[in-house]
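A quick aside before the break. I want you to see a complete sequence-to-structure record at least once, exactly as it would be stored in a machine-readable document. Don't worry about memorizing anything.
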Amino acid sequence: MGIMDKDFSRRGFLTSTLVAAAGVITLTACGSDSGGGGGDGRLVMTVWGGEVDKAAYQARIDALVEAYPEMSVTLQLILSDSYAQKVQTMIAGGSGPDIMQVAENVNVYSSKNQLLPLDEHIATAGLDLDSRFGPVGSVYSYEDKVYAIPDRSGAAILYYNKGLFESAGISAPTADWTWDDMLSAAQELTVPGERWGYAGAGWWPLWWSFAHQNGGAIIDEAGRPTADSDAVVEALQYCGDLVFKHKVVPSTIDYANMGTDMGGDPAFAAGLVAMNTTGFWNVGSLAEQDTVEWDIAPMWRGKEQAVATFGSGLAISRTAKDPALAFKAIDFLTSDKAQPLVISMKQDVPANVEVQQSEAFLSPSWMTDPVNMQAFPESSSFAFKSTFIPQWNEMQQAFTDGLADFWLGKQEAAPALATIQERLESIIPAK
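That is the input. The structure line, written in tokens, reads:
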């Protein structure tokens, strides 16, 4: 995951850039006050995001209450980068939400006993996580317990400039592309000092994808760090070589010279990079512009196919008044009854794999030109599962600090990752 820090509205990866003075916006969908949570059927659901997220979640809650009139659901939207702090404070004070959105920091909460395990509720409901959500069904599991149900889950996919590809006589990319295929295309599409073939893989979900494609992993199945393994070192060095050896990816200085707040997404939209690996959020924004002829494809493969996913799940806090009712709501919100609203309102990729394969997703009504939306469900089939450890935030800080010189071209991958490995071993306790 999947997945550094872009804002919550971009798939739930962990730092919002939105600021609100009050911090919480509250909206309500009411049913009759009979039965349910705490004896009255009332639930509170807390999420992060922007206006699109607010509208999409509210529409789904309205559908929930229409299906179950005994429920009354209040939506709390937190717009600040203090989501985790605010939610944890509410839980500690006994006033936490019944349902809360989580992402890769799920086990920061669960390790503090702030979330309820959902296994019994899953069994009672007869919910098959693998059937409903595919490979990401167990992404929020830790130490044999499930702490959240997938809600949004879009794989990292490849955006490519169709016009540039056609002009260069390069066939459209596919999931069968190799690293060599990608590099060859990037070299052909690069015009030194003017245009680059690829936007780069400096964000952790992207270079982690290369690591997993190379047969590596950042955390092994036993929960121990393996950041300095040969497979991870080779993958990270390859990502760095794209910048400093092959010069097909803009350097930090190149991006700075493009303009303020420039990165892969805006550079692609401006035609300055020919390929960009990113998430669903670019589909909606690119669909509204006419400067670049574009399409999407699955990310390439290495020794094996693997790709990060950008997502979030729904969990039940330990202060929930009626956990059974809260789970009933989550079950509905992640079903094929409510998940189509995730895409119809341009919010994200629904985690529900049936909905991902539906006409509503593959040909959304708001899409003006045909786009290969099949790239998302195709990519979901080879998504890798990141280990969302309780020390997630500390681990990410270790990578941020330890790779600073590497991404400036001042250090090779091997010594950088060796230092990070030592730090991770001190952060993550042995079991």
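Two observations worth writing down. The radius of gyration is 21 Å. The chain has a mean pLDDT of 89. We'll return to this after the break.
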